[in-house]
Amino acid sequence: MDAHSRGRADEIDPADQWVLNPRTGNYELRLNHSGRESSAPSRTPVRSGSRGESASPRGEVPAQRSHRPAGDGRGQEPPASRPGRRQPKSRRRKALLWTGGVMAFVVVAGSAGAYALYQKLNGNLDTVDVGDAGSKSVAADGPLNILIIGTDKRTGEGNEGYGDKGSTGHADTNILFHVSADRTNATAMSIPRDLITDIPDCTTKQADGSRKVIAGTRNVRFNVSLGQEGRDPGCTMRTVKKITGLSVDHFMMVDFNAVKTLSTAVGGVKVCLDKAVKDPDSHLDLPAGESTVEGEDALAFVRTRHSFGNQSDLDRIKVQQQFIGSMIRQMKSDDTLTDPGKLFKLADAATKALTVDSGIGSIKKLTSLAQELGKIDTKNITFVTLPVKDNPAEPTPVTVVVEPQKAGQLFAMMRSDTSLTEVKKKEQAARTEQAAVLEGSRAEAADIHVDVLNGGDISGAASATVEWLQSEQGVAQATNKANAPAKIDRTTLAYAPNQTDQARALADIMGLPATALKQGASDAEGLQAMVLTLGADFDGAGVPVTGPAKAPEDIQRADADKAVCAK
């Protein structure tokens, strides 16, 4: 029996397990499959912690919630159980389980979860048109980058005590979720909200459909890339690209309420504390050791700052990463995958919590994305925090700046699609490939014919590179061809088989890795030039594009498959 059929005898659709109880008027979970109705309520999760009541999404009380499936939150049945609205089973059943395995990332800074199966849930989603800041395709070939944003906007009942009272919603918690091209691994990089950076100009779509350019700002906190001056998530996506050199394909955004509703829907999330915590600010009150939190306690856990480490936002990031890792493990567990009621609650809660870009703004598109993300094994998901250091411009630092050497190494790894879980293996493979591709004769610099295009973010890069090649490297037959037809993440050199010696020579001069060389099928004719397209990984003329990826030393990291106690 495979993972897609566990817990469902005779290939029963999850929607068919909800039946109307005529005595209560509610839809309830039927597990006997015999056609008889069951009035037994679903299990109310048990959690440890100091509070006597679990938080209830959208004002529901636990007793009411345990008697009905996740539909529209008003006791209605899931749409697939209504006559005449049956959906194809096999494809949607598989997507539901794939989805369950990656649900956790919608929480706090969620990423990839609860992509519902039924068209009715389309109405739960909020979307934002970010224009060319993101990708129009759902999951194209190659690496995939998703920006997860948790805002400090006070929405939802009981959230008045959290965040900034007057906030329109700033980028409070941020994770860049990088998925490898082969979908075997992922790196989830947290970006501190107090990072001092430059926010570039960004174009936003107004309510009347018009476009407005919001001017960039220098030396400000990262979190004001959203909300301030009317900036939308596309502005945050552009800011991340400016910092990392990685193009962001999509965003997913949640607020405080999502943590409460999703942790409750999954039946609680296991957390561990190195010592007991009773925090007067967040009101977190938990004993040392393992506890299971949901609702208000879950939100308090991820918001607590002054009871962990050195009381900084960086230590809170560690706690949030531990929470998300635990949620992932819960999502992958049989306790979730074989519980139709729990999966329905997750689907409904997650889609109500999500705001996404229009490129993935439908259930169909999100399900396709979930299928891609669901291929990743938990052991191959690594959490890491952007390497930073105290801001030298402040006498008593309260903000941070990028630590250029370590951050540069981490960005290079992500751009070269190297996983932190298999660095040594890929380093050796890169060296082997480099030696094999670049072994052989080289042309003289004067014999190199190359057209240079700019597909990166540095204005005038093609012109500057051609000037450098001609004046300093002796490549007289280099030609500036201005901008490439489209932006690309990584620099490429396209050449014909009979130009291999030229390609090797130019790779030496430019510091190109073997992966950048793209050989065509047929020989070039006459003085046909090679084509060098500079990508987002290009940092300037004379700067090697990349080398074998090397993991930065002493960076904060955690693995999603391992439980860690917060200190």
Structure description:
With 567 residues, this protein is α/β, with parallel strands linked by helices. It has 13 helices and 25 strands. An eight-stranded mixed sheet has the order 3-16-11-4-5-6-17-25, with helices on both faces.
Given the C-alpha coordinates, what overall shape results?
Answer: elongated
Major sheet: arrangement of strands: 3-16-11-4-5-6-17-25
Report the portion of residues in β strands: 15-25%
Main sheet properties: 8 strands, mixed
Radius of gyration: 26 Å
Class from secondary-structure proportions: alpha/beta
Query: Helix tally?
Result: 13
Query: What is the mean predicted local confidence, pLDDT?
Result: 75
pLDDT < 50 stretches: 1-118
Q: Please give the number of β-strands.
A: 25
Termini, distance in Å? 41 Å
Ordered list of secondary-structure elements with their pairings:
Layout: E1 18-20, E2 27-29, H1 62-65, H2 89-101, E3 126-128, E4 144-151, E5 171-179, E6 186-190, E7 196-199, E8 202-205, E9 211-214, E10 217-221, H3 233-244, E11 250-254, H4 256-265, E12 269-273, E13 277-278, E14 285-286, E15 289-293, H5 295-303, H6 313-332, H7 334-337, H8 340-353, E16 355-357, H9 363-373, E17 381-385, E18 388-390, E19 400-402, H10 404-415, H11 423-438, E20 449-454, H12 461-472, E21 477-483, E22 492-495, H13 500-510, E23 517-519, E24 530-534, E25 557-559
Parallel strand pairs: 3-16, 4-11, 6-17, 20-21, 20-24, 22-23
Antiparallel strand pairs: 1-2, 4-5, 5-6, 7-10, 8-9, 11-16, 12-15, 13-14, 17-25, 18-19, 22-24
Helix pairs in contact: 2-9, 4-5, 4-8
